[in-house]
């Protein structure tokens, strides 16, 4: 009986300590895509906050209806969308080619896990390359000099062992 009680207590403590809260952050706007068509655009990411340990955030994803998903990568100097050389063209063309092209940035933040609900500004400063050598035309949020402003909301769900979050998708109307 003593062994069974101890085992049950250990299992109960493990279950409680394995529990976590999963947050989904998302914001929606309607804006022009790179083909100059009004589209629904969703920015979203998830964050897991365990009972013990540090919170962990996923990558921020920007989805434009009928376009490609764009991910923003966390670097020491900020959170960026890196374009593909030969497929993405910066608004301000640089005289020297670089190994990577910074085509977008989450403004005012350096860590995804620190971003919560409220206003979120992001900048897109590239456009997809057009032409027959590129293949299928890539579409994403239209490049412009001023940032896009999203109002981010938060929803949360508690689970025992974590939960896979399905990020929202905008509906594509051709």
Q: How many strand units?
A: 11
Sheet with most strands: strand arrangement = 1-2-4-5-6-8-9-11
Mean pLDDT score: 81
Low-confidence stretches: 7-18
Count helical runs. Answer: 1
Q: Which radius of gyration do the C-alpha atoms yield?
A: 20 Å
Distance between the termini: 67 Å
Strand portion? 35-45%
For the sheet with most strands, the description reads: 8 strands, antiparallel, barrel
Q: What string gives the helices and strands in order?
A: HEEEEEEEEEEE
Describe the structure concisely.
With 174 residues, this protein is mostly beta strands. The protein has one helix at 2-18; strands at 20-32, 38-50, 56-57, 60-64, 70-75, 78-83, 88-90, 101-106, 118-124, 126-128, 148-159. It has one domain.
Descriptive labels:
single chain; 174 residues; mainly beta; 8-stranded antiparallel barrel; two-stranded antiparallel sheet; 1 helix; 11 strands; 44% strand; globular
